[in-house]
Each structure stands twice: as C-alpha cells, then as structure tokens.
Design a protein that fits this description.
Layout lengths: L4 E7 L6 H9 L6 E8 L5 H11 L3 E6 L5 H9 L6 E4 L10 H12 L3 E2 L3 E4 L5 E5 L7 H6 L9 E2 L1
Parallel strand pairs: 1-2, 1-4, 2-3
Antiparallel strand pairs: 4-8, 5-8, 6-7
C-alpha cells in the first residue's frame, strides 16, 4: 500500500487562487494524500471555498483560525492533525504539476533521503513563466542555518 502524504495549506484571503491550488492537488497521479487547509481568519470567500472542497472530497480537511495568526500558525494547526507518513507544503496561491508527489515519493523510496525538494516556476495570472527558482542540488545543515533558499512548495519530508 502507498503511504499517505499530508499536504499542509495555509489560506488567508485566498479566494482568487484557492480553487486552482486545490485542483492541482486533486490532479495528482499519486492519490493517497490528505489535504489539510487552515483558513487563517479570511474576510473574503476563502472559508466557503474550503468548506465546499471538504464536503466534496473526504481527503480534504478544513480548519479555521477566527483571527489571522499568520501562515506559520496556520501550518502548525494543520500539522497537529496530519496523519500521513510524508508531509508536503502548498500555499493557497501555488499549484503543483500532476506528477509532483509521485516523482518525489518514488525518489524518497529509492534514495532513503529524509526530505527532497526541487525547482519551481513563478507564473503570471495567465500562466506565463516569469522566472525559475533553482535550489542547489545538495544542501547541508550549515548552509540552511545561513539561509533557507528551498522553495517551500517543492519540499516533501519523510
């Protein structure tokens, strides 16, 4: 059986892009995941979108901060309820390519690495690639103490 991935998503006033972010998770070729979304005190339509998504897919779990407490707090709230072996992060205005989870979980299984990461692209509202963010091929603890230059949405932890 394939191990579950807990996907952690903070969402604050994210109604403009939230459906697309959720859709990119639903489109994953690796299907054993749970998506934990914390609405962080939004004043727009974010809460309604999260509730509808949770009602339509049992793998989506909804949490709420009444007042905005920041992305770190919203992520931690989701992590408290995560049940997967693996943890991945996706912000509400980001999207994944369909094979992201499958390829990274396969790489973890083959290499026994505790976490993996990759590149990402910054795109415009209409999908045009604006820039590519490239993390180095290898990192060490000492380089991460200096600066965390790994794009959050590319990481999966075992």
């Amino acid at each position: 059986m394939r191990e579950c991935v807990s996907i952690i998503m903070p969402a604050h006033n994210a109604s403009k892009h939230l459906n697309e972010a959720i859709s990119s998770v639903r489109s994953q070729t690796y299907t054993n995941w749970e998506l934990l979304i914390c609405d962080d005190g939004s004043t727009d339509d974010t809460a309604r979108i999260v509730q509808l998504a949770a009602k339509s897919d049992a793998r989506i779990l909804s949490f709420k901060n009444v007042n905005s407490m920041g992305a770190a707090n919203a992520r931690n709230k989701c992590l408290e309820h995560a049940s997967g072996r693996y943890v991945a992060f996706l912000d509400a205005d980001d999207i994944w390519l369909p094979q992201k989870l499958e390829r990274q979980i396969q790489f973890i299984a083959e290499t026994k690495q505790p976490f993996v990461f990759g590149y990402c692209e910054n795109i415009s509202e209409n999908g045009k690639v604006l820039s590519t963010v490239k993390a180095p091929k290898l990192v060490s603890f000492s380089t991460l103490l200096f600066c965390n230059f790994i794009p959050c949405l590319t990481v999966i932890y075992d």
